[in-house]
């Protein structure tokens, strides 16, 4: 994270705004609006893209991916435009936390991968593209979405360093640790070979 130069009340304001953006449960809202059932009762019960895909609707899954990524990007870009770079990073982190722990769903949210990618793209698009490419390659080879997400998150700080965005490294490490914590059950299933593959219900 950068050294904060913005006044504390402004930082708090943008943390709240970022959290508000992140806490919008697009997967849940879309599946209800499209008549696909209660996402909480489908597959893993998670509100993210991978579980939305288990409804059988690729359109709903694609929209969830875009909107969950977009809310992270929106929080970053708006904060950067109105309050500066340090506030943008804080708003991005808050958006990620909001997705994972939305107040509207009793703090039981998603795992944050799309929001993570969206906010990284907005903060430093070369790093974001590298992380997205890493996820795509890892997921395509393994056919396991969670493995792609974990490898992408783990690589984010490395990409930030290699591509000249060292100010992003601390945030990338924090986000990667949170992604791993949110995927602890997936990691357990990966270790015993029972993690579902992409498209598997």
UniProtKB/TrEMBL annotation:
Matching InterPro entries: G3P_acylTferase_PlsY
State any GO CC term: plasma membrane
Q: What is its EC number?
A: 2.3.1.275
Pfam families for this protein = G3P_acyltransf
Compartmental location: Cell membrane
Q: Which UniProt keywords apply?
A: Acyltransferase, Cell membrane, Lipid biosynthesis, Lipid metabolism, Membrane, Phospholipid biosynthesis, Phospholipid metabolism, Transferase, Transmembrane, Transmembrane helix
Instruction: Tell me the pathway.
Output: Lipid metabolism; phospholipid metabolism
Q: Which SMART domains does the annotation name?
A: G3P_acyltransf (SM01207)
Q: Where are the transmembrane segments?
A: 6-30, 117-138, 158-181
Per the record, the domain of life is: Bacteria
Assembly = Probably interacts with PlsX.
Q: Which NCBIfam families match?
A: glycerol-3-phosphate 1-O-acyltransferase PlsY (TIGR00023)
**This chain belongs to which protein, by name?**
Glycerol-3-phosphate acyltransferase
Taxonomic lineage of this organism?
A: Bacteria, Pseudomonadati, Pseudomonadota, Alphaproteobacteria, Rhodobacterales
């Amino acid at each position: 994270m950068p050294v904060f130069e913005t006044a504390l009340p402004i930082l708090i304001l943008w943390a709240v705004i970022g959290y508000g953006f992140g806490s919008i449960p697009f997967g849940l809202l879309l599946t209800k609006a499209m008549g696909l059932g209660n996402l909480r009762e489908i597959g893993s019960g998670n509100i993210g893209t991978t579980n939305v895909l288990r409804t059988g609707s690729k359109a709903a899954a694609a929209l969830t991916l875009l909107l969950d990524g977009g809310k992270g990007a929106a929080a970053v870009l708006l904060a950067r435009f109105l309050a500066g770079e340090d506030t943008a990073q804080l708003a991005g982190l808050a958006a990620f936390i909001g997705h994972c722990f939305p107040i509207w769903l009793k703090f039981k949210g998603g795992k944050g991968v799309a929001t993570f990618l969206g906010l990284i793209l907005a903060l430093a698009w070369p790093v974001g593209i590298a992380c997205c490419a890493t996820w795509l390659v890892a997921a395509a080879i393994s056919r396991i979405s969670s493995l792609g997400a974990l490898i992408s998150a783990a690589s984010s700080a490395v990409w930030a360093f290699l591509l000249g965005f060292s100010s992003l490294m601390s945030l990338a490490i924090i986000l990667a640790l949170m992604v791993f914590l949110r995927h602890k059950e997936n990691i357990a299933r990966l270790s015993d070979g029972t993690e579902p593959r992409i498209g598997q219900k």
